């Protein structure tokens, strides 16, 4: 029980955000979709020219998603 009490404030931090953000952050569906989309894009490339290439790809995907999320547009991956 002590473990639950210690982590309660961290778990409830999302409640300090505006309601429109809480709805999106209430589940991990967004994270699952991002992982799925990064795998899909990575499969298209198949061979990376260097180690930094996959990181740039994932960074670009996250930046694109962040811009759309901040702009208020609904994000549908695929």
Describe the structure concisely for a colleague:
This protein has 78 residues and is mostly helical. It is 68% helix and 0% strand. The chain has one domain (2-70).
SSE topology:
Elements: H1 2-11, H2 19-25, H3 29-45, H4 52-70
Helix pairs in contact: 3-4
N-to-C order of helices and strands: HHHH
The residue fraction in helices comes out at 55-70%
Structure class: mainly alpha
Number of strands: 0
Report the C-alpha radius of gyration, rounded: 16 Å
- Distance N to C terminus: 42 Å
Share of residues in strands: under 5%
Mean pLDDT equals: 78
Main sheet: strands, sense, barrel: none
Shape: elongated
User: How many separate structural domains?
Assistant: 1
Explain the overall architecture.
By secondary structure, the chain is mostly helical. The protein has one domain. Helix content is 68%, strand content 0%. It contains 4 helices and no strands. The protein has helices at 2-11, 19-25, 29-45, 52-70.
Keywords:
single chain; 78 residues; mainly alpha; 4 helices
